[in-house]
Design brief:
The complex is a heterodimer of chains A (about 120) and B (about 110). Helices cover about 0% and strands about 55% of the residues of chain A. Chain A has about 120 residues and is mostly beta strands. In chain B, strand 4 and strand 5 form a beta hairpin. Classes of the chains: A mainly beta (about 120), B mainly beta (about 110).
Chain lengths: ~120, ~110
């Protein structure tokens, strides 16, 4: 089946720094990818839709200047958490829809801890 | 506002028990409902349901959708400790966008 990878799997950074998370579709092209955030014991919350070749679409309440999304190619989307704060600590997951089905393929997630 | 509600929030059973997880939804322009199993990392796909009354089955897991009453159930029979996970229900409310709304999940723990 289709595979989506994320890098890094885990990152710890200091307050005020920026962190970039990569999401790659390994064996298929993804013109659209989705970024989710999941706090402990809570469900996945859609943050934004990443569109190849155009601007990302952000969900209500998500700051686009804080969570920069770049979909530079058909296999890569990046999420940059700028000026990170401890409240940004969370599990970030990306996904990409399959071309032949309605299901989404999720990456393994990135656990961000901001100290 | 679109929403997906799952119940119970958590459940503890013993191996061999049968469990039923519930997912109700209120969304516009329903397209599909999906069930995922999440252990420590990203969710893994279980079922996709689009039509009422048609049961999807995979081993000890099965699921059915009721579009009239706006809910779905996920059944797990003869539970095993490996079934311990969070089970997520997601609904795609807009046609063709793949934008899913997730429920809060049901945390299942199966004791040996």
């Amino acid at each position: 089946g289709a595979v989506v990878s994320q890098h890094p799997s885990r990152v710890i950074c200091k307050s005020g720094t920026s962190v970039k998370i990569e999401c790659r579709s390994l064996d298929f092209q993804a013109t659209t990818m989705f970024w989710y955030r999941q706090f402990p014991k809570q469900s996945l919350m859609l943050m934004a839709t990443s569109n190849e070749g155009s601007k990302a679409t952000y969900e209500q309440g998500v700051e686009k200047d804080k969570f920069l999304i770049n979909h530079a190619s058909l296999t890569l989307s990046t999420l940059t958490v700028t000026s990170a704060h401890p409240e940004d600590s969370s599990f970030y997951i990306c996904s990409a829809p399959g071309l032949t089905s309605y299901e989404q393929y999720f990456g393994p997630g990135t656990r961000l801890t901001v100290t | 506002e679109d929403k997906v509600v799952q119940s119970p929030l958590s459940l503890v059973v013993h191996e061999g028990d049968t469990v039923t997880l519930n997912c109700s939804y209120e969304v516009t322009n329903f397209r599909s409902l999906l069930w995922y199993k999440q252990e420590k990392k990203a969710p893994t796909f279980l079922f996709m349901l689009t039509s009422s009354g048609i049961e999807k089955k995979s081993g000890r897991l099965s699921s059915i959708l009721d579009k009239k009453e706006l809910f779905s159930i996920l059944n797990i029979t003869a539970t095993q400790t490996g079934d311990s996970a969070v089970y997520l229900c997601a609904v795609e409310p807009y046609s063709g966008t793949y934008k899913y709304i997730f429920g809060t999940g049901t945390r299942l723990k199966v004791l040996a």
